[in-house]
Amino acid sequence: MPANIDAQQALADYDEARADYMRFLSMAPPDDKAVSAAMVAMDEAHIRFKQAMGDPDAPTHLRPL
């Protein structure tokens, strides 16, 4: 799979995870477990995007929750 397709998929995954994050965060009360899972999904997609773009300083791990 070419890098640009991988990068496009990572961006799509990030957008989906961000939408989930906002939805779960806006719940009353917020669903903390789902918010955390969405944050992890955003981080994973960000890492995949940076790697697909050939970023030499791409993150290699998730931020601590």
Provide a compact summary of the structure:
The protein has 65 residues and is mainly alpha-helical.
Provide a descriptive summary of the structure in words.
- It is elongated, with a radius of gyration of 13 Å.
- The protein is mainly alpha-helical and 65 residues long.
- Helix content is 68%, strand content 0%.
- The termini are far apart.
- Helix 1 (3-25) runs antiparallel to helix 2.
Mean pLDDT: 88
H/E order of the elements? Answer: HH
Decide which structural class fits the backbone: mainly alpha
Strand content bin: under 5%
What low-confidence regions span 5 or more consecutive residues with pLDDT below 50? none
Brief descriptors of the model:
single chain, 65 residues, mainly alpha, elongated
List the helices and strands and how they pair.
Elements: H1 3-25, H2 32-52
Helix pairs in contact: 1-2
